[in-house]
């Protein structure tokens, strides 16, 4: 996890520094700043691939015409790098982020179609005076923006945008009502009036003081269960393999359930040795420790059991809300926050079994989708 931020218009090194500092928790390893008349970019780095100075951002092409800051990981960067090198592009690092720079040089705004990964990206084309924001296909990495006083601001978190003292902080009642109804904000609104989320699979192009939003990807139509079973298995194996590219140690948050256990099994089949697994317990009868132990013993992982003790929830919830920037009705956020605090003592990157229930309808309330409307109370 890294953090990106920036804005268009006149240089303001003080604002850029403040915006970047507010994201320090996302990237404790390095800070990178770039500013010129037209655009300023900031980056907080959590170094995962190419730990050297050559991998630091903001990153430019050879003639400093194209500048990039990115949060995330480009899984196909090695293949893309080879393709771009054959086209005559010169690389100065082993970083996956540098492929974004040259992909934009080669393919223009279609560069994003070449990327397989999770990402939030800002590209500044100094020659065309154009800023491009792009978010990955399903929105794994966050990206917020605001257009205020003829200036476009963007950041990985809302708290970075509101560092601009000219931005008027107001509650967005549309976002607030959505939250009360759905326990989250479903659209591109936020709880802050004037601050928006860039939608998954979308790009925002800012040129000549005009914002132009484009959707470059959308979900395919659903397939039958029979035709998609083998495809899901193959996609899961490919996804795990792609997440194993790292220059730092990896771990797995292992609950002992189907999703995380499948990840450990696939890593084992790929020949990964000394897999670090982590299970969190809360001294409760329904703790998952025994199930995780069985999986760990089956695949011979280096297992850690982390017992979380009760804390002052008032203080803890305040910290979690600060990180989230706006409310989200997810009690699991407390456990996730506490687990992350513990796991960071051992590894820098963890794989988790997120998304399986959401994709395959694994939660109890998903059954309501097929509930016969005729059985509902009639007026």
What does this entry look like structurally?
It is a single chain. Helix 2 crosses helix 3 (98-107) and helix 7 (258-269) runs parallel beside helix 8. The strands form three sheets. This protein has a six-stranded antiparallel β-sheet. It has helices spanning 13-21, 77-86, 98-107, 158-161, 173-182, 225-242, 258-269, 289-299, 313-324, 332-343, 356-360, and strands at 3-9, 30-36, 38-45, 59-60, 66-74, 117-125, 130-135, 144-148, 151-155, 195-197, 202-207, 210-215, 250-253, 276-281, 302-307, 349-351. It has 379 residues and is of the alpha+beta class. Helix content is 30%, strand content 24%. The mean pLDDT is 89. It contains eleven helices and 16 strands. The longest helix has 18 residues, at 225-242.
Number of strands: 16
Look at the helices and sheets and give the structural class: alpha+beta
Rg of Cα set: 22 Å
Question: Helix segment count?
Answer: 11
Biggest sheet strand order reads: 2-3-1-9-8-10
User: Between the first and last Cα atoms, what is the distance in angstroms?
Assistant: 50 Å
What is the averaged pLDDT score?
89
Brief synopsis:
The chain has eleven helices and 16 strands.
Observed structural traits:
single chain, 379 residues, alpha+beta, 6-stranded antiparallel beta sheet, 11 helices, 24% strand, globular
What secondary-structure arrangement, pairings included, does this model have?
Layout (H helix, E strand, L loop, with lengths): L2 E7 L3 H9 L8 E7 L1 E8 L13 E2 L5 E9 L2 H10 L11 H10 L9 E9 L4 E6 L8 E5 L2 E5 L2 H4 L11 H10 L12 E3 L4 E6 L2 E6 L9 H18 L7 E4 L4 H12 L6 E6 L7 H11 L2 E6 L5 H12 L7 H12 L5 E3 L4 H5 L19
Parallel strand pairs: 13-14, 13-16, 14-15
Antiparallel strand pairs: 1-3, 1-9, 2-3, 4-5, 5-6, 6-7, 7-11, 8-9, 8-10, 11-12
């Amino acid at each position: 996890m890294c953090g990106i931020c920036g804005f268009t218009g006149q240089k303001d090194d003080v604002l850029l520094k403040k915006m970047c500092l507010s994201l320090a928790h996302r990237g404790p390893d390095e800070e990178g700043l770039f500013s010129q008349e037209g655009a300023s970019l900031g980056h907080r780095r959590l170094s995962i691939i190419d730990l050297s100075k050559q991998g630091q951002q903001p990153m430019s092409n050879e003639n400093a015409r194209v500048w990039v800051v990115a949060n995330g990981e480009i899984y196909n960067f090695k293949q893309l790098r080879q393709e771009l090198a054959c086209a005559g592009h010169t690389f100065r690092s082993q970083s996956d982020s540098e492929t974004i720079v040259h992909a934009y040089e080669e393919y223009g705004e279609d560069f994003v179609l070449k990327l397989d990964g999770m990402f939030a990206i800002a590209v500044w084309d100094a020659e065309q005076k154009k800023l491009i924001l792009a978010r990955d296909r399903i929105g794994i990495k966050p990206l917020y923006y605001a257009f205020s006083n003829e200036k476009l601001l963007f950041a990985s978190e809302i708290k970075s945008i509101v560092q601009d003292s000219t931005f008027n902080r107001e509650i967005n009642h549309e976002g607030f009502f959505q939250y009360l109804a759905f326990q989250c904000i479903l659209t591109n609104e936020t709880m802050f009036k004037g601050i928006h989320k860039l939608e998954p699979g979308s790009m925002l192009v800012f040129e000549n003081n005009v914002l132009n939003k484009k959707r470059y990807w959308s979900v395919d139509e659903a397939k039958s269960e029979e035709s998609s079973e083998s495809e899901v298995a193959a996609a899961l194996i490919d996804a795990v393999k792609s997440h194993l590219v790292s220059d730092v140690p990896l771990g797995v948050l292992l609950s002992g359930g189907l999703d995380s256990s499948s990840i450990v099994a696939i890593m084992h089949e790929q020949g990964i040795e000394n897999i670090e697994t982590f299970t969190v317990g809360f001294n409760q009868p329904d703790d998952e420790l025994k199930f995780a132990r069985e999986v760990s013993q089956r695949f011979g992982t280096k297992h850690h059991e982390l017992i979380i003790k009760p804390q002052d929830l008032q203080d803890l919830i305040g910290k979690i809300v600060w990180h989230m920037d706006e409310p989200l009705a997810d009690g699991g956020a407390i456990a996730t926050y506490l687990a992350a605090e513990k796991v960071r003592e051992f590894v820098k990157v963890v794989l988790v079994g997120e998304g399986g229930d959401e994709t395959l309808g694994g939660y109890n309330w998903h059954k309501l989708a097929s509930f016969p409307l005729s059985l509902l109370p009639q007026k």
